[in-house]
Design a protein that fits this description.
Layout lengths: L23 H4 L7 E10 L2 E11 L4 E5 L6 H8 L9 E9 L2 E2 L7 H7 E4 L11 H5 L12 H14 L3 H4 L12 H13 L5 E5 L7 H14 L4 E5 L3 H7 L2 E6 L7 E7 H6 L4 H7 L5
Parallel strand pairs: 3-8, 3-9, 6-7, 7-8
Antiparallel strand pairs: 1-2, 1-4, 4-5, 9-10
The protein binds adenosine-5'-triphosphate (ATP).
Length: 288
């Protein structure tokens, strides 16, 4: 019997926790992992949209991918969790590693990569008729874990707390996820991703469909998750990139050439002392 209480990770639910034997391997300490992309090129059919992009996304940090529309940010993000390969005409070359593990290695199953790399999309996409509770743990079957009711209760509370949603929904966990506001639905999607205890969380413009106060809640949630999970976020909002990220990568695809990273580095340097004129122009809103 494994007692998980001895090895907590993140914030824990209040009250006496249940024994969590079924979740032992699941909840055990998994520190945030670095993500490394090397020489990533991508195509849709014959059209090359990314050209030899390399980027280190340090463990526990927030990396923002910025750049004008169509320069390949979302494509790059989808390559990081093997979603690109779902598109029939899509191809790619290069390597993506979590720690030392190549997520495209022949032995690595897509589901294994997805368990370690959560994703949140631009439009909140909870299952609308499914309860908040069931939404939160809807990806649990992917893990093969057979959790007891008490274990599920624990996991739901834990994940909703990580997504800063618990206090707002704890009294209506069995109501439909579709009944939440847009911002709450997006935090439910973050909870659903965090319920898989990922090492990496990818976010594709997670606040672009939300009002300013919901956007702020998402940013606060990202700040809370920093350190516990490695976050890679695509955003068009330069103030947001500045507020929430530790480092930025500026993507650009000029004159129908494939997207490249023009410059990357610490967020303060990208905003206050960029090396490339194009970066300076972009972060100051002169194009894009
Ligand atoms: N499914 C697809 N089929 C064909 N081409 C695609 C597909 N998805 C994206 N593209 C093309 O790949 C290029 C990069 O698109 P991508 O969505 O990655 O850019 P982006 O920087 O994320 O843009 P945005 O900021 O507007 O979301 C674009 O030229 C786009 O038209």
């Amino acid at each position: 019997m494994v007692d998980l209480i001895a090895k907590p990770r993140g914030r824990r639910a209040a009250g006496p926790p249940p024994r969590l034997d079924a979740l032992a391997g699941y909840l055990e300490t998994k520190p945030a992992a670095a993500l490394q992309a090397d020489n990533i090129s991508a195509w849709f059919g014959d059209r090359k949209v990314l050209d030899r992009v390399s980027l280190t996304m340090p463990a526990g940090q927030v990396t923002a991918l910025i750049g004008p529309s169509g320069c390949g940010k979302s494509t790059f993000l989808r390559i990081l969790n093997r979603m690109h390969e779902l598109i029939p005409i899509a191809k790619l070359s290069g390597e993506v590693r979590i720690g030392n593990e190549d997520i495209y290695a022949p032995g690595m199953r897509v589901t294994d990569a997805r368990k370690r790399i959560g994703m949140v999309f631009q439009k909140p996409n909870p299952f609308p008729a499914m309860s908040i509770y069931e939404n939160t743990i809807s990806a649990l079957p992917l893990t093969g874990v057979k959790a007891s009711r008490a274990e599920k209760d624990f996991l739901v509370e834990e994940a909703l707390k990580k997504a800063s949603l618990w206090d707002e929904v704890k009294d209506r966990l069995h109501q439909p996820g579709g009944g939440l506001s847009g911002g709450q639905q997006q935090r439910l999607c973050i909870a659903r991703a965090m319920a898989l205890t990922p090492e990496i969380l990818l976010m594709d413009e997670p606040a672009s469909a939300l009002d300013p106060s919901s956007t702020r809640r998402i940013e606060d949630t990202i700040a809370e998750l920093r350190g516990e999970v490695t976050i890679v976020i695509v955003t068009h909002n330069m103030q947001q990139a500045h507020r929430i990220s530790d480092q930025c990568a500026f993507f650009l695809a000029s004159h129908n050439t494939p997207g490249v990273i023009v410059e990357h580095g610490a967020t303060e340097a990208i905003f206050n002392a960029p090396r490339d004129q194009r970066t300076e122009d972009y972060v100051n809103g002169r194009f894009g």
